[in-house]
């Protein structure tokens, strides 16, 4: 599934430091393999923050990988803060965040795969 490593990145802000200790880090190579090297045929969609790819992990688990665009302007601190917020807002009716990848200058979020429709289609028809 993932590397088994836990994020040790400290997020510094003016008022506090947060240590991510519950969200798994995925290896870049495993996500690359799962998505067939981020092949265009596996692209589920593309938004302002980058494309989303369908992937299948070695154990058969289907995932969706949001590969944030370098042009999004989001730095590592903003990315990790977003990961913390998303992971704390898990809800049974929303897609689950499985982990993230911050290797090779990449910032990726790994979600459960929703086979039928995107979340916005379910919410807004």
Automatic annotation (TrEMBL):
Identify the EC number(s). Answer: 2.7.11.1
Which GO molecular function terms does the record list? ATP binding; carbohydrate binding; protein serine/threonine kinase activity
Catalytic activities: L-threonyl-[protein] + ATP = O-phospho-L-threonyl-[protein] + ADP + H(+); L-seryl-[protein] + ATP = O-phospho-L-seryl-[protein] + ADP + H(+)
Matching entries from SUPFAM superfamilies are given as: Protein kinase-like (PK-like)
Question: Which UniProt keywords are present, listed alphabetically?
Answer: ATP-binding, Disulfide bond, Glycoprotein, Kinase, Lectin, Nucleotide-binding, Receptor, Serine/threonine-protein kinase, Signal, Transferase
Name the Pfam families on file. PK_Tyr_Ser-Thr
Q: Which residues form a coiled coil?
A: none
Record GO cellular component, one term: plasma membrane
According to the entry, every stretch annotated as the Protein kinase domain falls at 38-125
InterPro entries per the record? Answer: Kinase-like_dom_sf, Prot_kinase_dom, Ser-Thr/Tyr_kinase_cat_dom
The record's annotation in PANTHER family points to:
OS06G0693000 PROTEIN, RECEPTOR-LIKE SERINE/THREONINE-PROTEIN KINASE SD1-8
Query: Which protein are we looking at?
Result: non-specific serine/threonine protein kinase
**From which source organism is this entry?**
Trifolium medium
